[in-house]
Amino acid sequence: MIRYFSEDTAFLYKGKRLTSNWLKQVAEQEGKRIGQIGVIFCSDTYLLGINREYLGHDYYTDIITFDYCEGKLLSGDLFISIDTVRDNAAFYGTTFDNELHRVIVHGLLHLIGYDDHSDADIAAMRAAEDRALALLV
Q1: Element containing residue 89 per DSSP (H, E)
Q2: What is the DSSP letter of 70?
Q3: Which whole number is the average pLDDT over 95-101?
Q4: How many structural domains comprise the chain?
Q5: For a FRET experiment, which of 16, 100, 105, 106 has its CA 20 to 30 Å from that of 128?
Q6: In the sheet where 73-81 sits, what is the strand order?
Q7: What CATH code is carried by the domain that includes residue 6?
């Protein structure tokens, strides 16, 4: 089950059912199942606090993923900064919704096992994001 929350933001997400069905499809294509996933929309300030407290990083980011997966069952928390998603959409010349979907599926792909530390990892992650986004259209 995927549940959606907001922390330190007035953002209300209206695409819950569509997004949940889409993420389930992405997971199934990767041979995984959706367990308990929390998608928490928050502010830059809130996510910076999490980044400092839990990861020891002192910078803003668009998403932090906490992985609680067991085997093929995907479980975790995806903390997403609505502020940074909005800024990144403008920077990359895309819509807010497209950038938000990319960030959400990025978090799911981390739970699936994708990484983004090396150039090769980043390329594989981006290709997986693009494949997933094509399913949403």
Answers
A1: helix 82-92
A2: B
A3: 98
A4: 1
A5: 16
A6: 2-7, 33-42, 73-81, 63-67
A7: 3.40.390.30
